[in-house]
Amino acid sequence: MSTDSLAAAIDGIALVDHHVHGALRQNTDRASLEQMLTESDRPIPSWMTQFDSQIGFAVRRWCAPALGLAPHVPPEEYLAVRRELGAPEVTRRLLAASGIGHYLLETGYRGAEILGIHGMAEASGRPVDEIVRLEAVLEDVARTGVAAADLPARFREVLAERTAHAVGLKSIVAYRHGFDFEPEPPTEREVVRAAGAWLEASQDTGAYRVSDPVLLRFALWAGVERGLPIQLHAGYGDPDVELHRCDPLLLTRFIKLVEPRGVDLLLLHCYPFQRNAGYLAQVFPQVYFDVGLGVNYTGARSDAVVAESLELAPFAKILFSSDAWGPPELHHLGALLWRRGLTRALARWVEEGDWHLDDAVRVARMIGRDNARRVYGLAGSEA
């Protein structure tokens, strides 16, 4: 098998996207699309365009052909054809082009704007399983008018109901507080006290957004009790995060406390801390990581991000994700750029004699598909 055959083998993997969101339900205009091609939640200045960025160039290079256009077409031409085709057809084409074979869908963020479990399954023709966001469940419970004293027990009950058919959990403690939280589980008294203040303030404002560190720790440890794999956003994200507090190394004490419970922790995205995540995945048996999200946004430089993810961690501890939300361009690019980066890294090592070709193919399948199937208990054995 030549390195050309290695590329073909990697292209042929039906990837498991272990952390992803739905594609857009409706058509979108240029301004809205550009706003979804950045993690910033601030308006894009009038003197610039998001198409002049690594991800913007990647859309024009790699998504245009999937829509029947030449690579590198001007944004205006790309957007005109996108409008003409309509959202369902654009989504169908780009999801098909991604080669993703199984989606683990997290639905807790702006779910009304994107396809849910059944919508993504219909649009892609692929199996879709659910990842449940802990904070979203806690906020839903709060909206029911639950009393502070009853909130801990009620949350555990609802979490069990909501995850009856889910394959994993997700925490956004990095967004709402940062990883520099007290790692031990809070006491029931602490939770009730914090819940009382939160519920009172939320009833006054009508906004049920949990950010109290005690309640975030409570939700996280309730997730540990539930026993499902837990995903934790780490590193790069929108301005709601304070990036220096999202370094996964800050989770070290929490990881040590969780270790005896046998619950797997999956660090999502991690950029620019992918090497730190690789260290944690090496030294702690229950820690895994990916470099999703960062791959899309680094575009032509994503090869380096993918290569760095292979430096330290055992290959059984690395997974693939796109973290795509909204434009299906992100689902397609997440897979395409990851495959390209992996192929370039492994091909070089094979050509230089550091790796055997058979091992390179085996590792690619582990990271792209098999590790996720093992961690989340997924069925199937597609090629």
What does the model show?
- With about 375 residues, the chain is an alpha/beta fold.
- It has one domain: Metal-dependent hydrolases (TIM Barrel, Alpha-Beta Barrel).
- Helix content is about 50%, strand content about 10%.
- Strands 1-2-3-4-5-6-7 form a seven-stranded parallel beta sheet.
- Helix 6 links the parallel strand 2 and strand 3.
- Helix 3 packs across helix 16, helix 8 crosses helix 11 and helix 15 crosses helix 16.
- It is globular, with a radius of gyration of 21 Å.
- The two termini are about 15 Å apart.
- The relative contact order is 0.16.
- The model has no long low-confidence stretch (mean pLDDT about 95).
What features would you highlight for this structure?
single chain, 383 residues, alpha/beta, TIM Barrel, 7-stranded parallel β-sheet, 17 helices, globular
Quick summary of this structure?
The chain has 383 residues and is of the alpha/beta class.
SSE map:
Elements: H1 3-11, E1 15-20, H2 30-35, H3 54-63, H4 75-85, H5 87-98, E2 100-106, H6 117-124, E3 128-133, H7 134-143, H8 151-162, E4 168-171, H9 173-176, H10 188-205, H11 213-226, E5 230-234, H12 252-258, E6 265-269, H13 274-283, E7 287-289, H14 294-298, H15 302-309, H16 328-351, H17 357-376
Parallel strand pairs: 1-2, 2-3, 3-4, 4-5, 5-6, 6-7
Helix pairs in contact: 1-16, 1-17, 3-16, 5-16, 7-8, 8-11, 15-16
Largest sheet: 7 strands, parallel
Low-pLDDT windows of residues: none
CATH architecture: Alpha-Beta Barrel
Number of domains: 1
How many angstroms separate the termini? 17 Å
Q: Give me the strand/helix succession.
A: HEHHHHEHEHHEHHHEHEHEHHHH
CATH topology: TIM Barrel
Q: Walk across the major sheet and give the strand order.
A: 1-2-3-4-5-6-7
